[in-house]
């Protein structure tokens, strides 16, 4: 009989972990993973809130890209960025949860298709009247 086929106590008084023990371990691991993500994500979130006021995200700031109001040509406001970078993705997330991911697939497909239009403006850009420009020299 192999070591894994034994039922009851194993050599040296060891026992297989019960479902409850394994579930507890998963819960503890999950808590640590979430804590790690939250702590690592917190600086990024703060940085995002600061850069939104300049019409940028942290990634856009690093790559010297800026979001402009397509009507005025000026950098968008913090509120405009909040709609663009938070509310629209949140709406897609909720829609995806309600449709089993269908909304997400449609959204990503439309975003990709719209990247190949004139001025590379996505559906999101058209909705919120923005244009993303490259300021790198």
Identify the strand order in the major beta sheet. 1-2
- N- to C-terminal distance: 71 Å
Shape field: extended
Indicate the percent of residues in helices.
55-70%
* Major beta sheet summary: 2 strands, antiparallel
Question: Which blocks of ≥5 consecutive residues have pLDDT under 50?
Answer: 1-6
Q: Approximately what portion of the residues adopt beta-strand conformation?
A: 5-15%
Mean pLDDT: 81
How many strands in all?
2
| Number of structural domains | 1
In N-to-C order, the SSE pattern is HHEHHHE
Radius of gyration: 24 Å
- SS-based structural class? mainly alpha
With helices defined by DSSP (H or I, 4 residues minimum), what is the helix count? 5
Short description:
By secondary structure, this protein is mainly alpha-helical. The protein contains five helices and two strands, in the order ααβαααβ.
Secondary structure layout plus pairing:
Elements: H1 19-52, H2 58-62, E1 65-69, H3 78-99, H4 102-115, H5 123-128, E2 130-134
Helix pairs in contact: 3-4
Provide a descriptive summary of the structure in words:
This protein is mainly alpha-helical and 137 residues long. The protein has one domain. The chain is built from five helices and two strands; from the N terminus they run ααβαααβ. It has a two-stranded antiparallel ribbon. Helix 3 (78-99) packs across helix 4. The radius of gyration is 24 Å and the shape is extended. Residues 1-6 have low confidence and may be disordered.
